[in-house]
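Let us work through a complete example step by step.
Step 1: write down the sequence.
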Amino acid sequence: MQMIRYSSCTAAKLYSLYKAISKAFLCQTRCLFERMFSVRTLEGPYFCFAMACLQLLFLLLMYQRSSSSWSGAFMEKLPDKWDYSKLHDVYFNLSFFSPASTEDLHYCPPKSPLLVGPIKVNFHNVPNMKRIIRKNPYVQRGGLYTPRHCVAQYKTAILVPHRNRETHLRQLLYFLHPFLQRQQLHYRIYVINQAGNGTFNRAKLLNIGVREALKDDEWDCLFLHDVDLIPENDYNLYVCDELCPKHVSSAMNKFNYRLPYRNFFGGVTAVTPEQYLRMNGFPNSYWGWGGEDDEIANRVHYAGMNIVRVPLDIGRYKMIKHGPDEGNNANEKRFDMLTKSYKYWKVDGMNSLEYKCISKQLTSLYTNITADIGEAPIEDKNSAPES
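Step 2: predict the structure and record it as tokens.
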């Protein structure tokens, strides 16, 4: 569901509405003139004009009814400017509602009453797992949560590729669990680990996460989430745009809260399962750091879709500082691979995914998936597959 104020998808909707209204108006105007010049009575033109007005009103009402109730409520309540000097604790007021009996449960409102806006995020102290578990008593095994006092209207799976980043993972879990609870979502956090010490392949891990998550539930939305990014505003709703893949982390502190370049699609992104499969997911051939985010941005367009972005004042994220990861050196052939991506995007992705699921464990705070994804080709590392 669309949660941002300005996007190419919104423009497309408005343009479609404009064409429909213009067509109806021209049709009725022609009818009016025909009657004015062929019928001498006054009843014909007035009747035809009245019908044109009624049809126009009908079109506007139908368009308004077809708009998402989430989107409408969200857009009407947004302030013009956020004050990031006034921050709230991410756990503030989470116990405001008491649990309701099953018989008394109603659907959660489009706009959660728990939202506070800017969240205080700092990395001075690394919380241990016991503390995170204690502060999130209603998170079920596997990192599954559903609101206690209402029925969630949306189901989101969070997919986090991971290897040897336990400190960052604890920071993410500490902030992300209450952040999502404030939005009254039904959600589950998946952490996808790459077994062994071979070259890291983030893209393939995300493909594995999507496949394994879809075995568990019919998720409305898939969030592809880097382990070192923490959201700073809980009005940045973790739901998908129904028409377009959504770039969520549009403003990172690493880039001074601006896009580093126009086609940037990295960090945190949101896609529906249908959108993910339509663009054949990520390529499985990107071993090492870099390139796969630009590749998936290309695939969005190859599949006939557009990228929408959360506004910069809402899509703010803080990145946890860290050095280079062992086994995740820069992919030296990523630029050459990107120039050839249009040749192989239909054959390298979800439809060619091969892996061995070593384990799938339900821990207290997340579903831990460990997979053997194989090794980067020795004879031609980072090379793109032939079409």
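Step 3: interpret the result. Residues 1-8, 36-43, 61-73, 380-387 have pLDDT under 50 and may be disordered.
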